[in-house]
Amino acid sequence: MRAIRRFSVRPVLPEQLTGLGTLVNNLRWAWHPETQDVFEAVDPQLWRSTGGDPVKLLGEVPAARLDELANDQAFLRRLELAVADLNGYVSDDRWFQTDAGSPVSSVAYFSPEFGITHVLPQYSGGLGILAGDHLKAASDLAVPLIGVGLLYRHGYFAQSLNREGWQQERYPLVDPDGLPISLLRDGAESNAEPATVTLTLPGNRQLHAQIWVAQVGRVPLLMLDSDMEGNEPAEREVTDRLYGGSTEHRLLQELLLGVGGVRAVREYCRITGHPAPEVFHTNEGHAGFLGIERIRELATGQDLDFDTALEVARGGTVFTTHTPVPAGIDRFPVELIQQHFSPDAFGEGVPVDRILELGAEDFEGGDPGVFNMAIMGLRLAQRANGVSKLHGVVSRGMFSGLWPSFDATDVPITSITNGVHAPTWVAREINDLTLAATDTDAASFDGDGIFAGLDKTTDAQIWETKRILRQRFIDDTRTRVRQSWLNRGASEAELGWVDSILDPDVLTMGFARRVPSYKRLTLMLRDPARLKALLLHPQRPVQIVIAGKAHPHDEGGKKLIQEMVRFADDPEIRHRIVFVPDYDIALAQPMYPGCDVWLNNPLRPYEACGTSGMKAALNGALNLSIRDGWWDEWYDDEFGWAIPSAEGIEDTDRRDDLEAHALYDLIEKQVAPRFYDGDVPGRWIEMLRHTIKELGPKVLATRMVRDYVERLYVPAAQSSRSLNSTYDGARELAAWKKKVRAAWSQIRVDHVELQGLGDIPQLGTNVGIRTFAALGDLRPDDIDVEVLHGRVDSNDEITDPVRASLSLAETYEGNRHRYEGELKLDRTGPFGYTVRVVPKHAGLASPAELGLAAGPSDPEDPSTPDLPAGSEF
């Protein structure tokens, strides 16, 4: 008989053990080994069999064992200390209060997925893991963050393989009652009504969602759940699966995340007294509708016009883009947006045509029939960033159509390189090595000095530690491979070979990530015979463990997995190369420490950041990677090896061949010889030390979150305050922008000239520059006249221009003005300059914000025959 409903029954803990409930209900246990030790002490065997899930542990531990623990004074003392430590962690002042000075009251951080722990399966890959690490690092630094996401009843899929090696997907039911989360209730009583949010949909339908709260250290994570009574069957299914369903289904998820998420934050702050957010941070475009909801709040609640409300919302919004390719951006048919934001559905106060403008691809090459979520995110946020320096360059080029009057270097998208939460990902044994003889809190992993203890350990200690971690990873892999083959239809009798796969004394390489085509899972298979020779080398063998999921609709990705699995199934080499299905946090945590080398070979420049190599590096693994994402930024030959990129070769097969053979050469001639150089390879360990000590502090998520606070959150909070105080500033800014846009066609740069250049320009010379500009209906206070100068390329493009503002020297009739300044010839070789006029206002975060710039007229234009637009010498 099939149950019509299921739920989990939690145990009633003896009064002496209520502290266990306190520990379970704060996900800090997911990255705090001492708390995990307390759970393990409850029942070691059960802790292991439940996969380290404390909710399952307490649900299955016998009542007699709980009674025994309630009278175990040693255990009770240990429990008391763990609870006291947690209380101190969530209440004591940390970096944000002591060093940063609490510059922001609160930040709301929106993401479609969060990877906190394998026990809470609400993530698919890097975006979710990054979001989870962001919350954890914010907690460690005591940054007042509120996370906002969705609770998917089936999460992302669980992966298995069939006999032919084809990826199979299944969607296990996620029971909220069996998770370390709780419903937000409108009152302190346990029977108080759950707090809900409601969205009106086309056709007078209602979408209701309840709010689950996961406590991530100091940070609450709000997750909206539509599977509740009061919704019709279709609406109950809105939060069924992560990244699943039809186009309209995805739109409903993103409406609930953005619009419903803002309403959930308001409810949470009302009920708990948490400070209302000054800053709203949207992690990718999926949550972009939060900006529309904030405009609606201001338009209906404060009676602001759309333009004024837009400025208020923009001032406090940060947008992070993670994709390096347009195909990775969500785009919806315009008709769907019109339906869901019509006055009947979304209400009055926000004209649907203005909403459509925000997501319109109204630039060269854009599609007028779609609504682009990333474009909307950029237009609704005054500050935006990519997730590595190279990705910032890629993003500025990819979105340059929004700022057609500016070069890509001027596009107002900065970059903050991702980081990883070391307490989550670093093996306890590595932690003990790096923190030896220091007083640093292991939970913080913050600051350059924490790695100094590594110098106090011997090479032999480090080498033995890595072997222990390699063996642990191999044991875990053998268990997973055996189960995978059983799922594929094998019998126990034919799986004796699994006990001998991999070897703890063999150079171990890891490759694990999502499986889109650009990450090139099968690049290593370009020359199968050469790869086999590396795997089976008699003196310097290599073993490779591979994992990764293809999106359920990505047939090409599934074919890549199948190709890899079939290669690894070969009895000749299956002890040296394995594919492990169902890549998730539980698989990753032993994998990073157990590898000696982390392999990454994407098509440059399509890897936005790629944090798996960071996690491996913190565990003493060396990177072997194409210089893409973060590795391009921080590569050092003491941290590993750079695979030469054949970027620019249009023949993809030839490019893959070249890069694959470069990979083989590196493994054969550099990586393997160094690893096998003696019983304790001193040069290898020297690189390992250097990686942990020098690269380690750079890749920490605490560094990343500090960068967000200082470079984006604080300026956004300041803008938010200035525009929210009386709204007069926002009204003035909106009116000023309208005036500038209307008058900009009248702006002219009539004449540019240099003074004192001489016949032979010499390095170090100061040259006077002056220009005449007509401003039409604008005032000098409305604009800035800039000179841009620097080295020029063969196309007369100024590379890495230096900018300086010219000063107003004289005013003439007709609103014409002369501007003057000085230009220093600070470099030899081809040197060029030009002049431009840009809008200027204290409320702008960037001169490019309006996308308006005016330069000199074309040199061929007879109206300005006396001097070229700019000059080169």
Automatic annotation (TrEMBL):
Instruction: List the residue ranges of the region (Disordered).
Output: 848-873
Reaction(s) catalysed by this chain's protein: [(1->4)-alpha-D-glucosyl](n) + phosphate = [(1->4)-alpha-D-glucosyl](n-1) + alpha-D-glucose 1-phosphate
Q: Domain (DUF3417): give its ranges.
A: 13-120
Gene Ontology MF terms: glycogen phosphorylase activity; pyridoxal phosphate binding
User: What keywords were assigned to this record?
Assistant: Allosteric enzyme, Carbohydrate metabolism, Glycosyltransferase, Pyridoxal phosphate, Transferase
Question: What does this chain do?
Answer: Phosphorylase is an important allosteric enzyme in carbohydrate metabolism. Enzymes from different sources differ in their regulatory mechanisms and in their natural substrates. However, all known phosphorylases share catalytic and structural properties.
Q: What is its EC number?
A: 2.4.1.1
Under the heading Gene3D superfamilies, the entry gives:
Glycogen Phosphorylase B (3.40.50.2000)
Q: What class of enzyme is it?
A: transferase
**Does Glycosyltransferase show up as a keyword for this record?**
yes
UniProt similarity note: Belongs to the glycogen phosphorylase family.
The Swiss-Prot or TrEMBL record lists the needed cofactor(s) as:
pyridoxal 5'-phosphate
The transmembrane residues are none
Database matches in Pfam families: DUF3417, Phosphorylase
Would you kindly state one Gene Ontology biological process term found in this protein's UniProt entry? Answer: carbohydrate metabolic process
Q: What is this protein called?
A: glycogen phosphorylase
List every position bearing N6-(pyridoxal phosphate)lysine.
K615
